[in-house]
């Protein structure tokens, strides 16, 4: 009979940010989305370090979070951070 090493974190060497998959006679560790590594060690991916790894609007601030990221529109813009539009407020020096 096959032992399910994934039944308990104590019986496998997978990182806490990895998915353990039981296979016949062994197991496989794979890092969760937002993490990278070999499954036994998974490090957070900084999606904000590269514009190609996040979906933030060019008028938004990208903030890396554990396993993900958050987009917030800059002041003077509104939206969900992935789509930001100017609020149309114009300031006058009069």
In short:
By secondary structure, this protein is mostly beta strands. It has no helices and 8 strands. The mean pLDDT is 92.
Structure description:
The chain is mainly beta. Helix content is 0%, strand content 38%. The chain is built from no helices and 8 strands. The strands form 4 sheets. It has a two-stranded antiparallel ribbon with strand order 1-2. A hairpin with a 4-residue loop joins strand 3 and strand 4. It is rod-shaped, with a radius of gyration of 21 Å.
Give the helix/strand layout.
Layout: E1 18-23, E2 26-31, E3 35-37, E4 42-44, E5 60-65, E6 68-73, E7 77-79, E8 84-86
Antiparallel strand pairs: 1-2, 3-4, 5-6, 7-8
Write a concise keyword list for the protein shown above.
single chain; 94 residues; 0% helix; 38% strand
| Neighbour order of strands in the largest sheet | 1-2
Apparent shape: rod-shaped
Q: What is the structural class?
A: mainly beta
Percentage beta strand: 35-45%
Number of strands: 8
Ends: how far apart? 83 Å
**Uncertain stretches:** none
Per DSSP, the total helix count is 0
- The succession of helices and strands, N to C, reads EEEEEEEE
Give the C-alpha Rg. 21 Å
Percent of residues in helical segments?
Answer: under 10%
Query: What is the average of the pLDDT values?
Result: 92
Describe the main β-sheet briefly. 2 strands, antiparallel
């Amino acid at each position: 009979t096959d032992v399910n090493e994934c039944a308990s974190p104590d019986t496998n060497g997978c990182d806490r940010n990895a998915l353990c998959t039981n296979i016949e006679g062994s197991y496989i560790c794979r890092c969760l989305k937002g993490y990278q590594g070999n499954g036994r060690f998974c490090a957070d991916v900084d999606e904000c370090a590269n514009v190609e790894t996040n979906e933030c609007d060019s008028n938004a601030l990208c903030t890396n979070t554990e396993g993900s990221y958050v987009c917030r529109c800059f002041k003077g813009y509104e939206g969900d951070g992935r789509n930001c539009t100017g609020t149309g407020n114009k300031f006058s020096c009069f």
